[in-house]
Amino acid sequence: MKSVIIYYSYTGKTRELAEKTARDIDADLIEVKEKRNRSTFNAYVCGSLAARRQKKTEIKEVTFDLSEYEKVIVAVPIWAGFPSTPFNNILELLPEGKEIELILTSGSGNSKGSKEKTISLAKQKNIKVIKYTDVKTTK
Ligand SMILES: Cc1cc2nc3c(=O)[nH]c(=O)nc-3n(C[C@H](O)[C@H](O)[C@H](O)COP(=O)(O)O)c2cc1C
């Protein structure tokens, strides 16, 4: 069964996890990158606000054909209790009705509420979340 992991990472932790998971399950990797280089201040202030408002961001062009994959995993960090803004771009790149597995990485904050919000965002775009994994990246 061929799998793909579509991910966004700001500080590298989700990338590290995506790369490790890809090695473990022999999946292809697709990285979604923002056009801008955000400063930490911008990420926490503007990025968090945009994530809370479920806004998209400007991403570098990325094209993929998911028809060859049976399993699609999407991995993104949590920002301010919501999936980081590129998640909203990724949802739009997925074909309607697609089933996905989600990996959300987060720090020491409470991420319980994020699950419901993330699944609800996917549902609004007619994307079915068949598995949700919450990964704490702090030790
Ligand atoms: C702008 C911003 C907002 C964040 N908000 C939260 C949060 O609400 N809850 C939490 O547990 N961690 C939060 N974090 C921590 C990240 O979710 C966590 O470190 C994540 O694994 C980072 O992934 P990355 O290195 O791939 O960007 C935030 C980090 C950033 C940069």
TrEMBL record:
Top-rank taxon: Bacteria
Q: Residue ranges of the Flavodoxin-like domain?
A: 2-117
Q: What is this protein called?
A: NAD(P)H-dependent oxidoreductase
**Organism expressing this protein natively:** Blautia celeris
